[in-house]
Design a protein that fits this description.
Distance between the termini of chain A: 31 Å
Largest interface: A-B, 32 and 32 residues
Strand content of chain A: 25-35%
Number of domains of chain A: 1
Oligomer: homodimer
Radius of gyration of chain A: 18 Å
Order of helices and strands of chain A: EEEHEHEEEEHEHHEHHEEEHHHH
Largest sheet of chain A: 9 strands, mixed
Structural class of chain A: alpha/beta
CATH superfamily of chain A: Ribokinase
CATH topology of chain A: UDP-N-acetylmuramoyl-L-alanine:D-glutamate ligase
Helix content of chain A: 25-40%
Number of helices of chain A: 11
Number of strands of chain A: 13
C-alpha cells in the first residue's frame, strides 16, 4: 500500500533577495567572506520542501564553489545576475552574548546598489513568491513582472519602514503574508503592543502576519485566529545570521506542499520555519543547512511538538 | 450523575513573602499607596484554587480595608504580623512603553527590614509551601519551622543571587520548584543560554524549574521534559506589577488540586499561572484579580489553549 497519490507534488517557489559574502564574529568564533544573503538562506531552507528559484545579483568575485553548492542543493540560479567587474554585496557583523541582536560593523552594497531584479520568463508563473528584504520599489517591480500568483510573502526591515514608506505600503497591499521582527512590527504600526501592532498591520493588506521574536519564537496572526510558537531551545547557538530568512524558507516551503492555505496549514508552516531556523543557528553561514538530513528535520519536528504538547 | 467524588479537595498552601504599599506609574496612569507585595499577589491568585495562608509583616499604617479585602477573598492572614508604630514596606516604580521592565524609583523596607517570619502552629503541616522573594536566610527559617512538606516552591531575585549566595544555595537544595525570570536564571547559573542555565540550576537542587520570560511566556524544565508556554497576548496591559507572583499563585494553586505532580500536571499548572498573570496585568494593583469570576478564568484557559493548539 502506498499513500503517494495523496501527497500532491510541491508547487514551485520564486524568491528574490540578496546573495552576500558575510564576515561574522560570534562568541563561537570568526568567519570571513562566507556565503550569506536573504535569498541564499531562504532558497536552501525552502529547497528541502519544494523547487525554488532565486532572483539576485552577485559580482564576478562571488566564489563559484558557492554557486555550485547552491545548484547542487537544487536551488535554481537562472535568475542570478553576475555583474562582470562588480563586487558582491558584503556584510560584516558581530554578535555578543545576546545572540538576538546583530551589530553591523560594515555594509558594502556594491553590485546590490544597482540591483534590478529580472524574473526569468520560465519563473513568471511561480505559484508562490517570496519577496526578501530589499527596497520595496524592487519588490514592486518583481510583482509587476509576474502573473499575480496565488501566494506572495514578503519581508522588510527598519530602513525601508522609515525611509521608503509609500512604496512599502504599496507592496503590503499586494501580499498575502508579511514576516517581520517584533521591533519592525512596532515601527511599522506605531504600536508597542503585539496585538494592536498585528491589527494595524493586517489592516494595511496582508491577510496573514508572522511576527518573529528570535529566541522567544513567533506569533502568527491569521484571519481565522492567532497561533503562538516557541523557538527550539538550543544548547549551542553558533551563528544566528540568516535565521529569519531560513524561517521564511521553511514556512513557505511547507505551504508549497500544503493542499490548502488555511489556518492549520499556516500553523504547521510556522513550526516548519521554526525548525529550519533552529538548524541555521547551529553552524556558521549555511554550514548546518547544507548538511541536513531529512531524518534530522523530522526528529526536530517531533521534539518541537513535544515541547508544546499538552499530553 | 455527579463527578464530585472524583475531584479531590484542594490541599492548602502556605506562602511567605511581602505585603506592600505600591506607588505605580505606567503608560496607563498613576496610583499611590495601592495594595502590593509578593505574598499578596500570590495569595489572591492561589485563593481561586485552594485554601491559602500568608506569613508576612505590615506596619500599623496598613489600611484595614486592604486586610478586609484579602480576608474576604479567603486569604488566611493569621501569619501576618502587624508592627505597632511601624511603617509598611513601600515600593515606587515606573514602567515605560516596554512593560517588561520596571524602573524602581524608591524602596522603603520599613518593617520588612526586621521581618522574622513566624509560621502559625496551625499551618506548619501545609502540604504546599511557597517561599516568596525574600532574604534566603528567612526562607530557610520558614523551612526550619515547618514539617518538610511534600512540595516547596521558591522565588528569588538578583539581589539575593549576588549578595546572599551561600544561604540561597541552601534553600535551593531543599525545594522542589524554583521560579525565576530569565535574567535571574542567567545570573544564578553564569550561563547566557536557556538550556544550559536550566541544566545548571536543576543540578543545584530544584527538581523543576520555571523560567519566566514576561510577555514571551514561560519555560518549564522538569525531569520528564521541557514545556514552552506563551504568555496571553493582551491588547491592554495596564500594570504588570505582581505578574510573577500571580503566576506562581496560579501554578501552585493548580498543583494543590492535582492528584499527581507529574510532568503533565506541571504543564497545566504553568498554563494556569500564565492565565492568572494575564489578569494581573489588566488592572492596577490587584484590581482585576479581586474582581475575577470563575467563568473568566475558564474562558481564558480556553482561549490560551486555542493559541497553542495544533488542530
Amino acid at each position: 500500500m502506498t499513500a503517494k497519490s495523496d501527497a500532491p507534488s510541491p508547487r514551485s517557489i520564486l524568491a528574490v533577495g540578496s546573495m552576500a559574502l558575510d564576515s561574522l564574529e560570534t562568541p563561537a568564533g570568526h568567519r570571513a567572506d562566507c556565503l550569506g544573503g536573504s535569498a541564499t538562506y531562504f532558497g536552501v531552507s525552502a529547497s528541502y520542501f519544494a523547487p525554488v528559484s532565486v532572483v539576485a545579483v552577485v559580482g564576478d568575485d562571488f566564489p563559484s564553489p558557492y554557486l555550485d553548492r547552491l545548484r547542487h542543493h537544487g536551488v535554481d540560479l537562472g535568475g542570478v545576475e553576475v555583474v562582470q567587474g562588480g563586487r558582491t554585496f558584503r556584510w560584516r557583523g558581530r554578535y555578543g552574548t545576546d545572540l538576538n541582536n546583530a551589530h553591523t560593523l560594515e555594509t558594502q552594497l556594491n553590485v546590490f546598489e544597482r540591483f534590478q531584479p529580472r524574473v526569468p520568463e520560465v519563473h513568471r508563473r511561480a505559484p508562490l513568491v517570496f519577496l526578501g528584504n530589499i527596497d520595496p520599489v524592487l519588490q514592486l517591480s518583481v510583482l509587476d513582472q509576474i502573473e499575480q500568483p496565488p501566494f506572495v510573502a514578503m519581508d522588510t526591515m527598519n530602513f525601508w519602514i522609515t525611509s521608503h514608506r509609500p512604496a512599502l505600503e504599496q507592496v503590503l497591499a499586494r501580499v498575502d503574508l508579511l514576516l517581520v521582527n517584533q521591533n519592525e512590527a512596532y515601527l511599522l504600526s506605531g504600536e508597542t503592543n503585539l496585538v494592536r501592532a498585528a491589527e494595524h498591520i493586517r489592516a494595511m493588506g496582508p491577510k496573514a502576519l508572522v511576527i518573529k521574536r528570535g529566541e522567544y519564537g513567533a506569533a502568527l496572526f491569521h484571519e481565522e485566529g492567532v497561533y503562538m510558537a516557541p523557538a527550539v531551545p538550543l544548547r549551542d547557538v553558533v551563528d544566528p545570521t540568516g535565521a529569519g530568512d531560513t524561517f521564511a524558507g521553511g514556512l513557505i516551503g511547507h505551504l508549497a506542499r500544503a493542499p490548502r492555505h488555511d489556518f492549520l496549514a499556516f500553523k504547521h508552516a510556522v513550526l516548519q520555519g521554526t525548525i529550519m531556523a533552529s538548524f541555521a543557528c547551529e553552524g556558521f553561514s549555511l554550514d548546518r543547512l547544507f548538511a541536513l538530513e531529512r531524518g534530522e528535520i523530522e526528529r526536530r519536528r517531533h521534539d518541537l511538538e513535544k515541547l508544546i504538547s499538552l499530553r
